[in-house]
Amino acid sequence: MTKFTVIGGDSSADLAKRIARKLKAPYIKTEKKVFPDGESKITINRIPKKSTVLVVQSTYPPVDTNLLELLSIVSKVQKFSSKIFAIIPYMGYARQDREFLDGEIITIGVVGKLLKASGVKKVLTVDIHSKLALKELKISSENVSAMEVLVKHFKKMKMKDPLVVSPDLGGKERAEKFSKLLKTNFIALKKHRDRRTGKVSILTGKINVKNRDLILVDDMISTGGSIIKATQFLKKQKCRRVFVACTHALLVNNATKKIKNAGVSQIISTNTIPGESAKVDVSRVISDALR
Ligand code: R5P
Questions:
Q1: Counting atoms of ligand 1 from 1, which one is nearest the CA of 170?
Q2: How far is 248 from 187, CA to CA, in rounded Å?
Q3: What is the pLDDT of residue 163?
Q4: Of the listed 191, 210, 258, 260, which one is catalytic?
Q5: In angstroms, what is the span from residue 91 Cα to ligand 1's centroid?
Q6: Mean pLDDT in residue range 191-199
Q7: Which residues touch 280 (CB under 8 Å, ≥6 apart)?
Q8: Which of 30, 106, 109, 269 could form a disulfide with 277 if both were Cys (CB 3.0 to 4.6 A apart)?
Q9: What pLDDT does 288 receive?
Q10: Is 284 left (phi over 0), alpha (psi -120 to 50) or beta?
Q11: What is the pLDDT averaged over residues 176-204?
Q12: Is the beta carbon of 170 within 6 A of some atom in ligand 1?
């Protein structure tokens, strides 16, 4: 059996502790001090014994700070262990996985280079935005899905004739998986995002969702733009309630309030990003993949 040591970065300390408990592995805390100029200084409060070291740190906002902290921890640990896995439950920059407009940089590729250079041997993510992002990391990697644990949560909720909805065609596979586990059906909306302005619009025509409870399933919510447009469209089609299930709830720029105002009854997310909506724990999913 692999011997693990878990180190929790500042952005994922609670999740890291849960993973350590599940793996029956020692847990090492990190301490963080922020200088007046914004630089952070990380201290590892113990040196790991000979083992595979798991450094757990999601790279949600402040993305660059959390990423640099992760790289700093890894480069320190590299002195004591040659086997370091970066557990990055929410992987920032994963949406920058291709050159959408000429001259754009595939930043997820840059992140991969930095991880490799600092000493990471393998990366583990949860519901990364796309398979392409994982490929662009160009480092040994594995992605696990939170859909099963999210569905478990929804199974406990009382729903009327539930229908799973993906806000875009890109999320079709995810919604299909969710609906199969929930033993219901699914649809995928056709979404358009203007690459220059970021404006989102729904291109799907009339659909029959009258009096049904709907679950919008997505990998992540950032500004809420996609979910708001989808909800406004679905409400026009006379559905009953709209719930949101997502793995990563960034909820930036007052998104929660805007989403609720659009008519969403509840947002349920996982603890890849801590917050009010993070009701579902992914530590079991992660630890099972490591055993
Ligand atoms: C898009 O392809 C993603 O799956 C999400 O739907 C999107 O990135 C969420 O961003 P926002 O909440 O800003 O619309």
A1: 2
A2: 21
A3: 98
A4: 191
A5: 14
A6: 92
A7: 146, 149, 150, 152, 153, 268, 269, 270, 271
A8: 269
A9: 98
A10: alpha
A11: 95
A12: yes
pTM here is 0.96
CA 220 to ligand 1 center in whole angstroms: 6
Q: Side-chain half-sphere of 187: how many Cα atoms within 13 Å?
A: 15
Q: Whose CA is nearest to atom 6 of ligand 1?
A: 226
Told to judge if 152 belongs to the known catalytic residues of this protein, a careful annotator would answer no
Q: Is the CB of 259 under 6 A from ligand 1?
A: no
Query: What gap in Å lies between CA 121 and CA 127, rounded to an integer?
Result: 20
Bridge-based pairing of strands 191-193 and 200-202 is antiparallel
Going from the C-alpha of 255 to that of each of 107, 146, 227, 238, the distances in angstroms are 25, 22, 10, 23
Mean predicted lDDT score pLDDT of the chain: 97
Please give the Cα distance from 236 to 175 (Å, whole number).
21
| Per-residue pLDDT tens over the stretch 48-97 | 999 999 999 999 999 999 999 999 999 999 999 999 999 999 999 999 99
Counting from 1 in the atom list of ligand 1, the atom nearest the Cα of 222 is: 12
Task: Give the containing element (helix H, strand E) for 178.
Answer: helix 172-182
| Nearest alpha carbon, ligand 1 atom 2 | 170
CA of 95 to the centre of ligand 1 (A): 9
| Nearest in space to 178 (alpha carbons), one of 217, 212, 213, 144 | 217
Each residue of 243-255: pLDDT tens digit?
999 999 999 999 9
CA distance 188 to 186: 7
Whether 221 is in the pocket of ligand 1, judged by its Cβ within 6 Å, is yes
